[in-house]
Amino acid sequence: MSDDIGPMIRTARERRGWSQEFLAAKVGATQSTIDRIESGLTRRSRVLPEIVSALDIDLPGHEKRQTPTQVVGGFARVTYVLPKELIERIEQYKFAIGISSDDEAVRRIIDDFLKKRDEIVDVINRIINKYKLIKSMREAAGTVLANHPLVTTISFDKGGVVFDFDDSLYGKLDIEITSWGLVSIKKPDGSNFFFHKSDAPRWLSSDNIVEEYGSTDYIPF
């Protein structure tokens, strides 16, 4: 390993604002290993390809190692380096909900966070797409809506589903999806929630469509 590689790694690391400990955790090494590489005391190391890839730098004679994402049974294995205080909060979360798996805890936290960013069109699309696959509105809606943080009530009637969705702008919307895939949306005051005709989803009831822009009820998703 040439004499300038160590300083090059140090410069790249510091440019990213990473500590030696952080880089070490990311590549599966110890802080002392990183320090010895950067100081030029270690000229060969098994983790050098990982360091090169993590820092996204080009070193003569060393190719960046691409680690393929492992997908097993619909789950992808990914690795993140998290600060200690975040790990402690995850441990508190595990204890609070009574689970022991780190993977399950992180999955639930991320899933809950992303669901809170959902818009109603996205949720309805997921239900309808699921329904097309399994041909059961009850099962499709249950899969998508169960434990959704923005869904407050769910009921089933004649093959369809009715549920409330807590929209950040309009408040609690009332949504009905029929078994043939037609959807109506009402606002908290019982009035129709409108889309412009050119932007309306194909599954939307005609009662929720306006011809011209300018309606105070219209919202462009």
From TrEMBL:
Please give the CDD domains that the UniProt record associates with this protein: HTH_XRE
PROSITE patterns linked: HTH_CROC1 (PS50943)
Domain (HTH cro/C1-type) spans: 9-62
InterPro entries tied to this protein: Cro/C1-type_HTH (IPR001387), Lambda_DNA-bd_dom_sf (IPR010982)
Do you know which Pfam families this protein is assigned to? HTH_3
* Gene3D superfamilies (alphabetical): lambda repressor-like DNA-binding domains
Q: What is this protein called?
A: HTH cro/C1-type domain-containing protein
